[in-house]
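User: quick one, sequence for these C-alpha cells?
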C-alpha cells in the first residue's frame, strides 16, 4: 500500500515517541494498527465487489452468446425440416400414381402389436417376508411390540424381598 522503508519507519517512530510520549505510544500504535486493518479489509471488500461485477458482466455476455447460438441452431433445424418435408412431399407425390395396387395401398402392411404395458411390481421393502417362529423370538428376547418407558422400568424393577 505505502512504500515505506526501514529508515523511514525508524524516523516516524522517533518523531512519534517525541510528540506523543512513551506512556501513550502503545495505545496509539494499537489504534493505528486497527485502523490500518480496517482500511485493508475495506480495500479487499471493494476489490471483491469489483471482481464480482466483472464476472457478472462476463456471464451476461456468455449467456447472450449462448442464446444467440441456440436461436441460430433453431433456425437451422426449422429450415432443414422445411426442406425435408418439401422433398418428402415431392417423392411421395411421384410414387402415388406408379405403385398402387388393387386395394389402394402403396406398401404391404405389416401389423406390429404395441409394446407391453408397464406394471409396477408389488414389492414393499418395509414388510419383512421371513416367518420366524414365536418360540424362537421369545427364547432369544426379540422385541415384537413397542414398550413404553414406564413399562420397561416396571419390568426390570428389582423384586421386593
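Assistant:
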Amino acid at each position: 500500500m505505502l512504500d515505506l522503508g526501514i529508515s523511514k519507519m525508524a524516523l516516524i517512530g522517533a518523531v512519534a515517541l517525541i510528540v506523543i510520549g512513551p506512556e501513550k505510544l502503545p495505545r496509539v500504535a494499537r489504534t493505528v494498527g486497527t485502523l490500518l486493518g480496517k482500511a485493508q479489509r475495506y480495500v479487499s471488500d471493494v476489490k471483491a465487489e469489483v471482481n464480482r461485477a466483472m464476472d457478472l458482466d462476463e456471464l451476461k455476455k456468455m449467456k447472450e452468446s449462448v442464446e444467440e447460438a441456440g436461436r441460430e441452431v433453431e433456425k437451422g433445424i426449422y429450415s432443414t425440416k422445411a426442406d425435408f418435408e418439401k422433398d418428402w412431399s415431392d417423392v411421395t407425390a411421384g410414387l402415388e400414381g406408379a405403385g398402387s395396387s388393387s386395394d389402394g395401398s402403396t406398401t404391404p402392411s405389416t401389423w406390429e402389436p404395441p409394446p407391453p404395458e408397464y406394471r409396477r411390481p408389488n414389492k414393499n421393502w418395509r414388510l419383512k417376508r421371513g416367518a420366524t417362529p414365536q418360540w424362537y423370538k421369545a427364547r432369544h428376547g426379540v422385541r415384537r411390540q413397542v414398550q413404553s418407558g414406564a413399562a420397561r422400568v416396571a419390568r426390570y424393577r428389582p423384586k421386593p424381598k
